[in-house]
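Homework help board

Subject: predicted structure for assignment chain

Our instructor gave us this sequence and asked us to write out the predicted structure in token form, then describe one feature. I got the tokens but I'm not sure how to describe them. Can anyone check?
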Amino acid sequence: MKSLAISIFHASGKAYRLLSKLFILPSKSSLCALHAPTNCFLDYVVKMKDVFFKIFSMYTKSLTVGKDILTLLSRVPLSFKCFDEFRLEFLQKLFLRLQIYYSLKFANREFSNTKKKNRKYLKVAHL
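My token output:
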């Protein structure tokens, strides 16, 4: 029903208004507001996530963590065609910032929940 409403809305606004008086159709704002990403785009994000989690632990002691991981993320193959205004580099940098932030956030949360004796052990174990 929603796909029919969308096709009628895009074909003719007048026809959509007429049919909305006769039938119960979704509101115009709900038809225009949200768009789901394509499966190709979601696959690309999942591939970037897999690359990030495979190599993040290796680069944690590096001074240029973001730069090193960003070069590896830029090698992830793109399986969809981008339109001209799409900035792929911005997407990769945003993805990297969010992944590093959440990785550190949850690692710190796990670290703060441990007892003080375990903290000393963890500090010695990582030397």
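Reply (TA_rk): Your tokens look well-formed. For the description, you could write something like this. The two ends are 62 Å apart (CA to CA). That's the kind of observation they're looking for.
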